[in-house]
Design brief:
Length: 385
């Protein structure tokens, strides 16, 4: 009998990255990628040195499942200062990346027959995490005509007391949309009306251009706030994330955590403390953000010049552009052919929901040279189509 894991599809974004690495191992040495959501920067040296020093002084033992207390205290200070979220260390769970926070929270709160609502276009792993736990996924599509903002009317129609979690990601992967305080507040209120939690994935909170980030956890109690060090501090390979949630959610997460990975790598947590508390790290973040801003402007300019791509929604956050394209090919076939024939990697829009068919996710967390060459190859590809 086929269970939920057998029927599960692999992550589309990681599948693209894995295919790129496979092709390189086979000797294809001119592949360029706009596919993976990973900063091109290395982790700042001060963060690496903090982890090295922790390793050398013997921070190599088991640690509390929720994370070392100094890190959870630093997260609480960060949340209060930057997000206006008041939390205590016992509400914080440090996890092996933000993705594991999502998985733990879903596993703690969902039973077979429960429902999870996704606001499309939505990041690929939310659906998988729900399916693993036997939950039904309800996808609420949005439109580029409204800037891919959540459709509150459609959401209200699908809500009932079997919906346990509504997931929102602002800034949004893949669209780059940043949702207003009013929209996020409405989402929290709609969820609360039906006894549901709103999971607010804020991993791209620093990648915002010309707007202020708003955390619904600052005003509402039914919020699971998820974040990570991966995007903000170029620490993707460190696998460090965290969440702050209501006590009953944290209790369930910790039970599952204690029987799985037990805790995050000990000495890596001290690198995370340095990231949150050091003025040097804050300066590094600003420098990275300026590069992202410049890359964003470059990619928008190149898409605007294209005869075959249309950017109806300019990204206001994250580090992705999400253009539609002029071709009858489906986005999976198009992305596959771009990789095979032009050695340019991107992610097909349909991976993020049916409403995103006919779009491509292009990451500008790459060098300007890579962006320019990729866009030139894509333009040549479309002309030959």
């Amino acid at each position: 009998m086929a269970g939920p894991i057998v029927e599960l599809e692999a992550s589309a974004t990681e599948a693209v990255d894995n295919r790129v690495k496979e092709m390189r191992q086979q000797g294809v040495d001119d592949i360029l990628s706009l596919g993976v959501g990973e900063p091109a920067f290395d982790t700042p040296d001060n963060i690496k040195q903090a982890a090295i020093q922790a390793l050398l002084r013997g921070e190599t033992k088991y640690q509390p499942t929720a994370g070392v207390l100094p890190l959870r205290e630093a997260i609480c200070k960060k949340l209060e200062k930057e997000n206006r979220i008041k939390a205590t260390p016992d509400q914080v769970v440090v996890t092996a990346g933000g993705k594991f926070s999502i998985y733990l929270a879903f596993t703690a709160m969902l039973q077979k027959g429960d429902k999870v609502v996704l606001l499309d276009p939505a990041w690929v792993s939310y659906e998988a995490a729900a399916q693993i736990n036997g939950a039904e996924v309800i996808r609420v599509p949005s439109s580029p005509d409204t800037g891919f903002s959540p459709d509150l009317d459609r959401l209200s129609v699908v809500m009932d007391d079997t919906v346990k979690i509504v997931v929102v990601n602002s800034p949004c992967n893949p669209s780059g949309a940043v949702f207003s305080k009013e929209t996020l507040g409405s989402l929290a209120e709609i969820a609360a009306k039906y006894g549901a939690l709103l999971m607010s994935d804020e991993v791209y909170e620093y990648q915002i251009y010309g707007q202020e980030h708003y955390s619904p956890g600052s005003d509402f109690d039914n919020i699971i706030t998820v974040n990570a060090f991966s995007k903000s501090y170029a620490m993707t390979g460190w696998r460090l994330g965290y969440s702050v949630a209501p006590p009953e959610v944290v209790e369930g997460m910790l039970k599952i955590y204690s029987h799985s990975t037990s805790s995050v790598t000990s000495f890596a947590q001290w690198g995370a403390i340095e990231a949150l508390t050091s003025s040097e790290s804050a300066g590094q973040i600003k420098g990275m953000q300026e590069i992202y801003r410049q890359n964003r402007e470059l990619m928008i300019e190149l898409i605007t010049q294209s005869e075959y791509l249309d950017l109806s929604v300019e990204p206001q956050g994250a580090f992705y552009c999400f253009p539609s394209y002029k071709s009858d090919l489906g986005s999976v076939e198009l992305a596959t052919r771009l990789l095979d024939e032009r050695h340019v990697a991107c992610v097909p829009g349909v991976a993020f929901g049916e409403c995103a068919e006919g779009f491509l996710r292009l990451s500008y967390a790459a060098s300007p040279e890579v962006i320019k060459e990729c866009m030139a190859r894509m333009e040549s590809f479309f002309k030959e189509l």
